[in-house]
């Protein structure tokens, strides 16, 4: 069993209107990806029946991801804020189930943004308890939750694989694990090998992003080492290419991630290049 290779929807479009969803699904298929990762910030904006039909027509799989915000942060000390996050994530899990997605990943534990203070024990406990409940709901639909390890400017709860493993074991749900992203690893980890080995079978999802989030191979990420570690650890979960440019604006995400620069304009070329780049690194040597 080998990994499915996906592409993040923001390579194609910033939202999920009729035109955007048709475009994103057709282009993902044309660039020979196995699946598309949809942004699930607002599950009510996703026309599930239509999306499901478009995916089936294209023969494309699907996962979804999101980051929380200051009003629905599971790691907040304010129970009302945590409750809003839990309600949103329940809806996202149900949307995933209806779409046929088996993975919900990203910053589903904290606001996506720069905190001005460290995480607190009470906030962390709120997050752990909420994710225990959400993991049970996800398990009922056969969905795996992946906690994405992101850099210090995008969460304060954990920034390395080792820290993520601590909270994953505290939560203690069989269908909840670590989601690694090479863009963030390049900022926070010592190398691209040890975090993969540390995670072992707790690694459930992977984002492939360059150090500036543009064309793969044009930045600082040591992809050869990373893919070698994935192979040696027998990783068979999904791998999604993630890239952002000011050429495609995702209202819920671009400003939070600081996408101010134009890293590319030709997303077709970018996506084809990335797929070939990933296939080449995964080829048995
Ligand atoms: Mn990512």
Structure description:
- Helix 4 links the parallel strand 4 and strand 5 (144-148).
- The chain has helices at residues 18-30, 48-58, 79-99, 121-140, 161-171, 182-188, 194-199, 223-232, 254-257, 267-282, and strands spanning 5-8, 35-39, 61-68, 103-111, 144-148, 176-181, 203-208, 239-241.
- The model has no long low-confidence stretch (mean pLDDT 97).
- The protein is an alpha/beta fold.
- The longest helix is centred in the first third of the chain and has 21 residues, at 79-99.
- It has an eight-stranded parallel beta barrel with strand order 1-2-3-4-5-6-7-8, surrounded by six helices.
- The protein is globular.
- The relative contact order is 0.15.
- It has a single domain (5-282), classed as TIM Barrel.
- The chain binds manganese (II) ion.
- Manganese (II) ion is lined by residues 148, 181, 207, 209, 242.
Brief synopsis:
This protein is an alpha/beta fold and 285 residues long.
Structure ligands: manganese (II) ion
Predict the CATH topology: TIM Barrel
CATH architecture: Alpha-Beta Barrel
| C-alpha termini separation | 17 Å
Largest sheet: 8 strands, parallel, barrel
**Could you tell me the radius of gyration in angstroms?**
17 Å
Total domains, how many? 1
Helix content: 40-55%
Class by helix and strand content? alpha/beta
> Mean pLDDT score, rounded?
97
Listing every helix as H and every strand as E from the N terminus to the C terminus, the arrangement reads EHEHEHEHEHEHHEHEHH
Strand order of the largest sheet: 1-2-3-4-5-6-7-8
Q: What is the number of helices? A: 10
CATH homology superfamily: Divalent-metal-dependent TIM barrel enzymes
The backbone outline, from C-alpha atoms, is: globular
CATH class: Alpha Beta
Percent strand equals 15-25%
**Count of beta strands:** 8
The low-confidence runs, each spanning 5 or more residues with pLDDT under 50, are none
């Amino acid at each position: 069993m080998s990994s499915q290779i996906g592409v993040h929807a923001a390579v194609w479009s910033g939202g999920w209107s009729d035109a955007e969803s048709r475009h994103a699904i057709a282009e993902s298929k044309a660039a020979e990806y196995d699946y598309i990762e949809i942004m699930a910030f607002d599950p009510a904006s996703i026309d599930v029946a239509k999306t499901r039909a478009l995916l089936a027509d294209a023969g494309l799989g699907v996962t979804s991801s999101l980051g929380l915000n200051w009003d629905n942060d599971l790691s907040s000390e304010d129970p009302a804020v945590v409750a809003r996050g839990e309600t949103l994530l329940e809806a996202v899990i149900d949307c995933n189930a209806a779409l046929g997605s088996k993975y919900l990943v990203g910053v589903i534990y904290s606001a996506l943004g720069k905190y001005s203070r460290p995480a607190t024990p009470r906030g962390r406990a709120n997050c752990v308890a909420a994710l225990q409940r959400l993991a049970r709901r996800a398990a009922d639909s056969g969905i795996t939750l992946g906690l994405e390890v992101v850099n210090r400017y995008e969460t304060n709860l954990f920034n390395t694989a080792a820290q993520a493993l601590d909270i994953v074991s505290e939560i203690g749900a069989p269908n909840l694990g670590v989601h690694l992203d090479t863009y963030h690893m390049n900022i926070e980890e010592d190398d691209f090998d040890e975090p993969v080995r540390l995670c072992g079978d707790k690694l459930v999802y992977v984002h492939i992003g360059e150090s500036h989030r543009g064309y793969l191979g044009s930045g600082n990420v040591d992809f050869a080492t990373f893919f070698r570690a994935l192979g040696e650890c027998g990783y068979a979960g999904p791998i999604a290419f993630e890239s952002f440019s000011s050429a495609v604006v995702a209202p819920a995400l671009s400003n939070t991630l600081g996408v101010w620069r134009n890293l590319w304009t030709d997303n077709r070329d970018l996506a084809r290049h990335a797929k070939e780049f990933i296939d080449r690194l995964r080829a048995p040597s």
